Each structure stands twice: as C-alpha cells, then as structure tokens.
Amino acid sequence: MVQMVKRNDDMDEIEVLCIGAAIVDIPLQPVSKNIFDVDSYPLERIAMTTGGDAINEATIISRLGHRTALMSRVGDDAAGYFILDHCRKENIDMTTVGRRISISIFRA
C-alpha cells in the first residue's frame, strides 16, 4: 500500500515536476586510496545528504524561486523521513511522493 504525502496548502500551481529517484547518500571522509586493502579504516566524518537526480533537480529549481514538486517513492523509515524533511525545508511540494513500508534504502 502506498501512502501519499499531503499537499502543502500554501503552494500555488506547480511550475516544475521532477520525477525519479530520491535517495539518501552517506558520504564518508576521509577516504584513502588504499581503503579496500585494509580490514578497517578510521573515519573523521559520516554525514547524510539527499541524492538522486529528481530530488537534486527539484532542490535547485526550488532554490531558484520556482514552484517545484517531486514525484517519487520513499521508504517508511528514517531515510524516507529524512528526504521528506528535506523537501519541507526546500519548499518542494510532496503531493506525489509515496511512502511504502516495503521500500528501504538500508540493505545489508
């Protein structure tokens, strides 16, 4: 079952609809050229950022002042909520973002 995110009533008519991937990237720093040659490696920084063509473009277009919406699906998990929070902060309409319990970015 897909649950749709409710529309932000403050949004006017959408100018741009971005369709596609909305994921969470987890960049690690620093990464040495020999990272695959060792069993463990100390990191100084781990972060979470949004990624994927659709959400990246929606973010840029919204920051340029256009009324933007995202059409994608996210998991009903921490990563999905991270993406939805990003969209709220960037004023990206999420009417067509579905949440599915069976979708998760966390895989072993």
TrEMBL record:
GO terms for molecular function: kinase activity. Pfam families: PfkB. Keywords: Kinase, Transferase. Residues 15-97 form the Carbohydrate kinase PfkB domain. This is Putative sugar kinase YdjH. The lineage of its organism: Bacteria, Pseudomonadati, Pseudomonadota, Gammaproteobacteria, Enterobacterales.
